[in-house]
Amino acid sequence: MIETMLQVSFTLFGVAIVIALYRIIFGPSLPDRVIALDMIGVNLITAIAIVSVILDTKAFFDVILILAVLAFISTIAFSKFIEKGGVIIERKRDD
Predict the structure, then answer these.
(1) Is 56 helix (H, G, I), strand (E, B) or coil?
(2) Would the N or C end of the chain have less CB density within 10 A of its end CB?
(3) If you ran DSSP here, which 8-state letter would residue 85 be given?
């Protein structure tokens, strides 16, 4: 029973990733695309966690942690890019 529920949820997360890919390709605006990219990151993390439960291993926990940090940092970088037009902005010095 649990195995069937895990497989169904894994399939549904796969469908959600495909829908988010559609939003990235045909999104009406750049913020919609950034949110869809973040959604793919979250769904990918949960899919890896489901695979970890199905395989009954803890080997994927490091991958989940690294992917979560990278998804968070990329979302912040994209948001800053949308807001200010650049990720790294040089400041003028007062000499």
Answers:
(1) coil
(2) C
(3) S
The average confidence (pLDDT) of the chain is: 88
Pairwise CA distance, residues 47 & 49, whole Å: 5
Distances (CA, A) of 8 to 1, 42, 55, 57, 76: 11, 17, 15, 19, 32
Give me 60's structure tokens.
Answer: 């994927």
39 contacts: CB under 8 Å, gap ≥ 6 = 16, 20, 23
Cα distance between residue 66 and residue 37, in whole Å: 16
pLDDT at 29: 87
Q: How do residues 54-77 score in pLDDT, each as one tens digit?
A: 999 999 999 999 999 999 998 888
Q: In the numeric block, which tokens belong to residue 95?
A: 């000499």
Distance, in Å, from the CA atom of 82 to the CA atom of 69, rounded to the nearest integer, reads 20
Rounded mean pLDDT, 12-16: 94
